Amino acid sequence: MATEELNLVVMNAGGPGNAENRRKGIAKVLKKKKPLLVFMQEFNCNKLHEGRWGSLKVPHCYQCVGDGDVGFVYDTDKITLTRYDNKKCVTRMHKQLCKHSHVKNYAELSRMCIYVMESKGAPSYKLLVISWHGHHKCADTVKEEVVRLFCKFIILLEGKYRLPVIVGGDFNLKATSVEKCLHEDLHVIKPSESAIDMLLVHKDVSKITAMGQLEKIMWKTGKVEETFNHVPLKIAFHPKVSIEDRLSSLSLSQNK
């Protein structure tokens, strides 16, 4: 049975243009691309349907959550996002990991937004998702050490929650440099060798389409092209279908 294709988007919403044009661009991506989940950076908003957003008519299924300038926009009809259940434990894990690191000031928890994503219906899936925004005002050697530390933290989170992880973000470091720093269980999905926006995925995670199918979303709303510093990335995510879902689907088809 074919699995449903669900779109994940990585979007840094920062740029030199005005906030109104950025809102227009974000709203158009949501309406046209209909993503399941958007990994957001440089985006500090908690209301997509009120105030200055009201006239843009963002589909009501979309809500946003986040910490500072990192967070998510997600389709509430299809998934739930739940904050990790024990913030003190995660904070303690992060503090212990960074305790003796000389780059700990560049790998703060505030630079990542961590949630559990779970489907509302079939196919059934549950993952840990992280939106990440790497520092840009430091040397590449420091950024590489931060990525190594971040990867160790991802593996610790996977061990605690027993869930596969997908990270989407602006690393402010070229993909080729990020790849040199990866834990062996992780790999990069990138649009090019020099890209700084990308996804990190566990090798055993539910199938994600081939890297060649990663799509750049071009801004096409008036002068929005001149408003953003980054081009959003979209990729199709194919969750594995559980045996229970397969049997349920087969039973339904037989009863028709």
Structure notes:
With 256 residues, this protein is of the alpha+beta class. It has a single domain (6-255), classed as Deoxyribonuclease I, Chain A (4-Layer Sandwich). Helices cover 27% and strands 27% of the residues. A six-stranded mixed sheet has the order 3-4-2-1-12-11, with no helix packed on it. A six-stranded mixed sheet has the order 5-6-7-8-10-9. Strand 9 and strand 10 form a beta hairpin. The model is unreliable at 242-254 (pLDDT under 50).
CATH class categorisation: Alpha Beta
Sheet with the most strands: spatial strand order: 3-4-2-1-12-11
CATH topology name: Deoxyribonuclease I, Chain A
CATH superfamily placement: Endonuclease/exonuclease/phosphatase
- Compressed to H and E, one letter per element, the order equals EHEEEEHEEHEHEEEEH
Beta strands, count: 12
What share of residues are in beta strands? 25-35%
Helix proportion: 25-40%
Gap from first CA to last CA: 17 Å
**Helix/strand class:** alpha+beta
Counted by DSSP, the helix tally is: 5
The low-pLDDT segments are 242-254
Main β-sheet description: 6 strands, mixed
Please state the second-level CATH architecture: 4-Layer Sandwich
Instruction: Give the overall shape.
Output: globular
In round numbers, the mean pLDDT is 83
Supply Rg.
Answer: 18 Å
Q: What is the total number of structural domains?
A: 1
